[in-house]
Specification:
By secondary structure, this protein is α+β, with helices and mostly antiparallel strands. The protein has helices at residues 14-28, 90-95, 98-112, 159-182, 184-193, 208-225, 228-233, 236-245, 249-257, 302-312, 315-341, 354-380, 386-391, 399-407, 412-433, and strands at residues 38-47, 58-68, 74-83, 126-130, 137-141, 265-267, 276-280, 286-290, 297-299. Helices cover 49% and strands 13% of the residues. InterPro entries: CHK_kinase-like, EcKL, Kinase-like_dom_sf.
Length: 438
């Protein structure tokens, strides 16, 4: 029987580090087994995201087989290990807020998720974390071993997956409101521990994503101008107002991320279909699980819902079922809030009403669109290695224009149609709620 040799590993790539240092350390410290004396029988590690799924951190699926030295009992453990990308340039590490991303996720697992144990909110188990600068690590359970899976493709989810997602989100927001209302001191303490991981600096004109988002905003508005049916139904004045409003999308996102009372709540911060897993229970009802808590923040709940709807739902489902989708979210939110606060729905303050949340959604849908404008094309036509490709560019790099030009046509008419639909939704919401995009 061969066991992994953990000595003299020398300079290692991430897979070697996981196999030669990290997993043996976890075993020695009793993190992976309840047995006192175990040896590593085998360890396999493979990189995730090579199918083009966008990931800022490097993730590895690790399968470990353990053997009890005295008992002879064999155990199999499947993990997902998140690492800071090796040899990441300083400007990317600091500009990408990697230290804050990992710190937020650690805070979420240690301080926030334990508060949600009374709810049926599922999330991976955290075995270990380390916040050593530029060498951050989080070790999680591999939820695929329990029947959970990410929808493929990650764009245009099915209606049952959309409803499961928004119900989960509503429950998460509602229970967070419940803590805010019933234990404000605890809630304030949690807020103070969260680090803002995006929109915390004015990078206008310098950051690659900033440039890409700015250039991408006009793809949807120009597509409407070029499509007779939509051109005749959406006034040019509205398109001009939207373009002017989003001429600096990062600035708009930064402003809208600021918490405004009374609706500010704990938000996932990156509630997209590639951060949601699904599973059918015994009655064939679809359940949803959220993961990747690195961008958890205190902001409007619509930071999550508008981003999810703009990036993870398609017009063919969203258009005929929007009322069902939004209603399912709000119903679950109110239910969780009432349970935690021990109140009936008619006793809740008016700012928790359906109409008020719809107005908030109308205000934040441009936020969701500003993200979708550059991100949805990549979801439809994944890059082989997004982080590696982004490293090759700077604001002065002559290849940047080529990269942006390529992104502006990714997905073709399929993506154009999605963008036109989102803008049409914004227009009708403005008419319905009176929330103008200006």
């Amino acid at each position: 029987m061969e066991y992994i040799n953990t000595e003299d590993c020398g300079e290692m790539d991430p897979v070697e580090f996981i196999k030669c240092e990290l997993v043996p350390k976890l075993v020695r410290n009793g993190k992976l087994s309840s047995q006192i004396d175990v040896a590593i029988k085998s360890c396999e590690a493979s990189k995730l995201g090579e199918d083009g799924t966008f990931m800022r951190t490097q993730c590895y699926r690790v399968k470990v087989e353990l053997l009890g030295v005295k008992s002879g009992i064999t155990e199999k453990v499947s993990l997902v290990i998140k690492l800071t990308p090796p040899n990441i340039p300083t400007e990317f590490y600091e500009g990408g807020n990697y230290a804050q991303l990992f710190e937020n996720e650690c805070t979420t697992y240690q301080k926030i998720l334990p508060l949600l144990q009374d709810l049926e909110i599922y999330y991976p188990k955290c075995f270990y974390s380390s916040l050593t600068p530029r060498k951050e690590i989080i070790v999680l359970s591999d939820f695929t071993q329990d029947g959970w899976s990410i929808a493929k493709p990650v764009t245009n989810l099915s209606l049952e997956n959309i409803l499961a997602s928004v119900k989960l989100l509503g429950k998460f927001h509602g229970y967070s409101y419940g803590i805010k209302e019933t234990n404000p001191e605890l809630f304030s303490d949690i807020r103070k521990q969260l680090k803002l991981t995006s929109f915390n600096a004015d990078t206008s004109g310098n950051d690659i994503w900033d440039i890409l988002m700015t250039k991408s905003i006009g793809r949807g508005t120009n597509s409407i101008r070029e499509t007779e049916e939509d051109r005749n139904s959406i006034p040019e004045e509205f398109l001009d107002d939207l373009e002017k409003y989003l001429e600096n999308p990062m600035r708009v996102q930064r402003i809208l991320n600021e918490p405004i009372e009374p609706l500010a709540v704990l938000c996932h911060g990156d509630f997209l279909s590639n951060n949601i897993a699904f599973k059918k229970n015994g009655t064939s009802t679809v359940m949803a699980m959220m993961f990747d808590f690195q961008t958890l923040r205190y902001s409007s709940p619509m930071v999550d819902l508008a981003t999810f709807i703009a990036n993870s739902t398609g017009v063919d489902i969203r258009k005929p079922h929007f009322d069902d989708i939004f209603g399912a979210y709000h119903t679950e939110l109110v239910k969780a809030l009432c349970e935690k606060w021990n109140k009936n729905e008619d006793e809740l303050p008016s700012h928790y009403s359906y109409d008020n949340f719809l107005k908030e959604y109308a205000k934040y849908l441009p936020f969701g669109y500003s993200i979708a404008a550059s991100f949805v094309p990549i979801l439809h036509c994944p890059l082989a290695d997004p982080i590696a490709e982004m490293k090759d560019f700077s604001a002065e790099n002559e290849n940047l224009d080529e990269f942006i030009a390529k992104n502006l046509v990714l997905g073709g008419e399929t993506v154009n149609r999605e963008f036109r639909s989102l803008i049409v939704d914004m227009y009708h919401l403005e008419k319905k709620t009176g929330i103008a995009i200006k």
